[in-house]
Amino acid sequence: MRNFSSLYRKEYINDLRSSSFDLLIIGGGITGAGIALDAASRGLRVALLEKSDFASGTSSRSTKLIHGGLRYLKQLEFGLVKEVGSERAVVHNLAPHLVIPEKMLLPLSEKKGLGYWLTSIGLKIYDWLAGVKPEDQRRMLTRHQTLKAEPLLRTDDIKGGAIYAEYRTDDARLTIEIVKTAVNHGAIVVNYARVVEFTYAGNKIDGVEVVDELSREKFTVRATSVVSAAGPWVDDLRVINRSKSGKELHLTKGVHIVVPRAKLAVKQAIYFDVDDGRMIFAIPRGEITYIGTTDTNYSQSKEEVTTTKEDALYLINAVNITFPSANLSVDDIESSWAGLRPLIHEEGKSASELSRKDEIFESPTGLISIAGGKLTGYRKMAERVVTLVAKIYFEKKSLKQCFTEKIRLTGSFANNDEVRKYKESLRGRLGGLTDQTIRYLVENYGNQTDVILASAERKKEEQEVALLKAELEFSVEHEMVSSLSDFFVRRSGLVYFNVHRAKRWLSVAAEHLQPILQWSAQRKQEEILKLENTINAVTHFN
Ligand code: FAD
């Protein structure tokens, strides 16, 4: 079987041109990836096209939690909380190295939030709806216990707290592993392939026109059914399909900022109230803590969503009120990301009040679009879409029922214990690895770390360079990386979580990728400049 490598892109595109598919998916975010895996594993012939890189839309810019969405309980969205809450443990089992249990501290303030008893009952309902195991169920804390759990909290305002269970992940890594698992089940998947038009037989869609963004060539792909999982771009495709009527998207922007862990050394993830009635996360991760999010209406370019100074100051102000000794300023921000929530518009509702539920739109020409939803609910969303596609187009095919809850993702392990043992087993590799390096490798690549380490061990350079080069080769050969940004932003997460390392290794990486990806000297320079611009955009705010 061919690797999922950018070096085989031409062959993949030839497959797209020369075959006809049961289902073609537009969009390589978590939603499209989930649909591709569900459909391919049920026996459909699947193609997926992504106009940029996988997860380059919203799916690399979330809070990176696999969570039930406690605040949706406040909005009485019981169905949503039940579905995504229950999905947390399922998604954890599919990739325990990548979807990691994280206890969340919820401080209860004198003046803000729901109060002690309502929170206690709310969390009980949350655990019950989501079927949380008894040992992981919420624990209420006294004022003393809360301040002990998080000494950085402002003391005059705390009346107690709660600890409850969530999971953290890396959204872009989760997306790429789902894509790779779909490819292992036979899906043909290509990035940098933009759908620009639909083709029709009579008045029904029978394929799409595509522009290869790397070669600028155009080609056509034939398919019995077409699903748009284009996230914030769903309405643009409905316009191309001349079917945008009725409900429409309402985009809201959410920003996260990253500060050194030492500047906000919270002991664990924390979800705290803000003066305007919203809630914000502060999540420690390795050497950094990230803080988010904002929620504001958005109508500017979807291609360049950036953090403004106003966004940054809102988050900094919220932190400084809750953790006065942090004394953060904009200069402390090391990196940031900004993403768009593709929500469904509801008249008269503010950004934060809009439902996070997903919806499916069917056009008279056969285009099925899905929008809204959560990272956490991707599997159930995929199941609904594929079941609908099967009902409309493939009733005679007697497809299998959805069984993605049993399909472990690439690089995965059976359970937490296996992850722990695997991490232990790596300690002596490559002349001795630090805990931090092991954590980085295993949380990003799972047991695929073996491939990276074996390649690094064959190299003569010092450990850090050998590892970087091996990682780059792996990402080209197994994760369809074709640019510096693909690697530094989405495969490794370095631009967000360790921007200093990204800056330090940018030129070495460009030098190493040049012969592998056959870049001209000019292309190499363009790649460097593009990544420098990206780093500039996430580290400077206007
Ligand atoms: P996207 O990831 O945007 O994917 C759509 C893809 O379609 C894009 O990659 C785009 O390039 C591609 N595309 C568009 N047009 C075309 C075309 N013409 N041809 C080919 N490809 C095309 N959810 C959680 O569960 N937990 C969280 O902690 C969480 N936090 C969030 C925080 C923020 C700030 C935001 C904004 C969202 C958060 N969410 C969270 C929600 C979650 O991130 C989104 O629901 C999810 O990522 C949406 O994925 P998607 O695949 O639908 O969209």
Question: What would you say this structure looks like, in words?
Answer:
There is one protein chain. About 40% of the residues lie in helices and about 20% in strands. The protein has about 550 residues and is an alpha+beta fold. The strands form two sheets. Strands 3, 4, 5, 6, 11, 12, 13, 14, 15 and 16 form a ten-stranded mixed beta sheet that branches. Strands 1, 2, 7, 8, 9, 10, 17 and 18 form an eight-stranded mixed beta sheet that branches. A hairpin with a 5-residue loop joins strand 12 and strand 13 (about 280-285). Helix 2 crosses helix 10, helix 4 (about 80-95) crosses helix 5 and helix 17 (about 500-515) packs antiparallel against helix 18. The model has no long low-confidence stretch (mean pLDDT about 95). Flavin-adenine dinucleotide binds next to helix 2, strand 8 and strand 16.
Number of helices: 18
Q: Structural class, please? A: alpha+beta
**What fraction strand?**
15-25%
Shape: globular
Mean pLDDT: 95
Q: Any low-confidence stretches, pLDDT <50, length ≥5?
A: none
Helix content: 25-40%
Strand tally: 18
